[in-house]
Write a structure and sequence with these properties.
The chain is of the alpha+beta class and about 475 residues long. It has 13 helices and 13 strands. Helix 4 packs across helix 12. The structure holds zinc ion (ZN). The site of zinc ion (ZN) has 4 residues, from loops.
């Protein structure tokens, strides 16, 4: 039903010669290639849904997405894309490309799942396999929709309607905030004009809010062991150092901006009470609305680590092991995304799908509002980011990056949780995915066809990054591939 409806709107827009947007804004011109791209995605809809279900069922976690990456890469290959596997020292990273020369327009794909949230495609909590991973962030939909969009562009290239290079980035390990950073470091984004990207969500919008910048680090304390009763005066407790550190971090909260988030987990805090522990380890994340804010807090965190060690008469080390930038929002680009959403019209769901969504909302104690079938108005002044970070942020500081969110789950559904897995494995997810593919393809057609639009987007990007050279938080060396 969605496809027919969208196609109807497309035809209307075609007759009008302009986008049918009832909102003010820079309307995008009607391009027949868009109608053709939408039709192309409709034609491939069932095989895209099958591919997404396959990835959903594999549910592989960060850097172990072997079968998922291969399924998507192999499909791209059968569709005529040139595929380079195992790029940037990651077996599950790949690039699929079609066409040649400028412009180079890219689309990002992700396909990693989250541990421990296996779930059937049912509206009540029920693990498909107890303790196994599940697609609680909808990355099965994300990865496949992006390829669907690339495929529609490729078909327009074959038809001679647009020229240039379409490139799909198979980016692993989004959930551990890393895949894209390694691909950036390997120089794989150097020749790209504009990147497009989407994420599943509970609403449909051109994202003008940024995400949080984050740094991920380890603090370790080394002391001197002793018998805790016989001669504790000969011991220097690493756990004392750790406790003073966390204590001071929790005082620090009072003196940071409200946008700052600090969270930690004690990884090693001694073994038994009767031994003075000589080692303690803490894993910590600091976030803020931008990288500079994170760095301000980090300067103080480093002092706290040194101070805690001094107080406990132990040694401390602080090791940064990763992190991401906040999203650099490109307003010209986001406006283009928004205009294409308006052109496409909002996603629609059946009564049965709405029922499924309300059942989930009932089960999770959220308002039974069903699935959102609107397009969120364009937010000119979106305010600080909501909680959360993504490695798309790093891409956005290297190449102008456009970001879209599409409804694939019930309104206010808990994220990284079973409802998202459930919807991602049935028609609700498939519809959101198909819609996202169309929105991305339509936006990319403008990017390919309109050099002035590309120039505008690139100009805004250049102005925003001026004087702020990109510095990755990645440590030296290749990524560590986890063991199964
Ligand atoms: Zn995600």
């Amino acid at each position: 039903m969605l496809n027919r409806l969208v196609f109807g709107l497309v035809c209307l827009a075609g007759l009008a010669g302009l986008s049918a947007s009832p909102f003010a804004g820079e309307q995008v011109p009607f391009l027949p290639q868009k109608t053709a791209a939408v039709a192309s995605i409709d034609r491939h809809a069932s095989e895209l849904a099958r591919l997404s279900d396959q990835v959903w069922a594999y549910a592989e976690t960060a850097l172990l997405e072997t079968k998922s990456a291969e399924a998507i890469a192999a499909f791209a290959e059968t569709q005529g894309f040139r595929v380079r596997r195992g790029v940037a020292d990651m077996p599950t990273a790949f690039i699929a490309e079609y066409g040649q020369g400028a412009p180079v327009i890219a689309v990002l794909g992700e396909y990693d799942a989250l541990p421990g949230i296996s779930q059937k495609a049912e509206p009540v909590k029920a693990a498909l396999e107890a303790g196994a991973a599940g697609h609680g962030c909808g990355h099965n939909l994300l990865g496949v929709a992006a390829l669907g969009a690339a495929l529609a562009i490729k078909e327009q290239m074959v038809a001679g309607k647009i020229a240039g290079t379409i490139r799909y980035y198979g980016t692993p390990a989004e959930e551990t905030l890393g895949g894209k950073l390694y691909m950036l470091r390997a120089g794989l984004f150097k020749d790209v004009d504009v990147v497009t990207s989407w994420h599943p969500g509970d609403e449909t919008k051109a994202e003008t809010k940024s995400s949080q910048a984050i740094v991920d680090f380890i603090v370790e304390f080394h002391g001197k062991t002793a018998h805790a009763a016989a001669d504790p005066w000969n011991g220097r407790s690493a756990v004392d150092g750790l406790e003073i550190f966390t204590h001071a971090i929790n005082y620090l909260r009072e003196h940071v901006k409200p946008t700052v988030r600090i969270h930690y987990s004690i990884v090693k805090g001694g073994d038994v009470p009767n031994v003075v522990p000589d080692y303690a380890k803490l894993w910590c994340w600091v976030r803020d609305s931008d990288r500079a804010g994170v760095e301000d807090v980090m300067a103080r965190v480093r002092k706290i680590a040194a101070g805690a060690a001094l107080a406990a008469d132990v040694e401390s080390t602080l090791t940064v092991q990763g992190g991401s930038y906040n999203m650099l929002v490109n307003m010209k680009g986001q406006r283009l995304v928004f205009d294409n959403l308006q052109w496409l019209g909002p996603p629609r769901f059946t009564a049965e799908e709405q029922r499924f969504a309300r059942e989930i909302q009932k089960a999770t104690g959220t308002e039974q509002a069903g699935l959102d079938e609107t397009i969120v108005p364009f937010l000119e002044k979106p305010g600080p980011p909501d909680g959360g970070s993504t490695d798309v942020g790093d891409v956005s500081w290297n190449v102008p990056t456009l970001q879209l969110t599409v409804t694939t789950a019930p309104k206010k559904a808990p994220w990284h949780a079973w409802p998202v897995v459930a919807c991602g494995g049935m028609s609700i997810g498939h519809k959101g995915m198909t819609y996202a593919a169309k929105a991305l393809a339509a936006t990319m057609i403008d990017l390919f066809s309109d050099p002035a639009k590309r120039a505008e987007i690139k100009k805004e990007f250049a102005e925003k990054v001026a004087g702020k050279p990109y510095q990755s938080y990645l440590p030296d060396g290749p990524p560590v591939i986890p063991r199964r």
